[in-house]
Design goal:
- By secondary structure, the chain is α/β, with parallel strands linked by helices.
- The protein has a single domain (3-196), classed as Rossmann fold (3-Layer(aba) Sandwich).
- It has 7 helices and 8 strands; from the N terminus they run αββααβαβββαββαα.
- A 6-stranded mixed β-sheet has the order 5-4-3-6-7-8, sandwiched between helices. It has a two-stranded antiparallel sheet with strand order 1-2.
- The chain binds zinc ion.
- Zinc ion binds next to helix 6.
- The site of zinc ion (ZN) has 7 residues, from helix 6.
Length: 197
């Protein structure tokens, strides 16, 4: 699946909006990305998962590990595409752990799969968890790479495969060119809505 086809999945479901947005970080941007809007469609999620699986199969993974919540659905679909199991890590008191009886065997070949990678922080934390039980991280992956200057690079020397690279600018409100033009700002996303309520 080429990046243009991926972009169509996002734009066709309202998962990638253009306009003037206040992000949960407080920064302003002219793009807004909400992966859940595309992944709510199982057929689209399956197609994206199959495309990632095609990029990952050369690493011969035996299990997909995703960080909850963002990586859950796409991780499941990548597992389907690879024909292997898919498990997820959850934060307990801020630290990723395996719950629900999930476990890795020493030497298992793991791909870490997320929806969007922005800083790579949670990706690295899942690497640490996988390695702490003696399994091997052979590759990492996500639908969208929005790591700014790091786009397209490995994550801590682990090969990284993405379907779409998105270099989205974000500005402090006082430096925002859209504010300077007087365009009204909107704040999508549940975190801000919860604050307003
Ligand atoms: Zn602005």
């Amino acid at each position: 699946m080429n990046p243009e086809a991926v972009r169509k999945h996002f734009e066709g479901t309202g998962a990638l909006l253009s306009g003037h947005f206040k992000l949960s970080s407080g920064l302003h941007s002219d793009r807004y990305l909400q992966c859940a809007k595309v992944l709510q469609w199982p057929a689209r999620a399956e197609a994206l998962g199959a495309a990632l699986a095609a990029k990952l199969s050369a690493f011969s993974p035996t299990v997909v590990v995703s960080p909850a919540m963002g990586g859950l659905i796409i991780g499941q679909e990548v597992g389907r595409g690879l024909g292997c199991r898919a498990i997820f890590a959850e934060r307990t008191e801020g630290v990723f752990t395996f719950r629900r009886g999930f476990a890795l065997e020493p030497g298992e070949r793991v791909v870490v799969v997320e929806d969007v990678v922005t800083t790579g922080k949670s990706t690295r934390e899942v690497f640490d968890l996988v390695r702490s039980v003696g399994a091997e991280v052979v590759a990492t992956s996500g639908i969208v790479d929005r790591r700014g200057a790091e786009i397209g690079k490995p994550i801590d020397s682990v090969p990284a495969a993405f379907l779409l690279e998105l270099d989205v600018p974000a500005w402090k409100p006082e430096a925002c060119p859209l504010c300077a033009k007087g365009e009204p700002v909107v704040a999508p996303g549940s975190r801000f809505l919860a604050q307003k309520a």
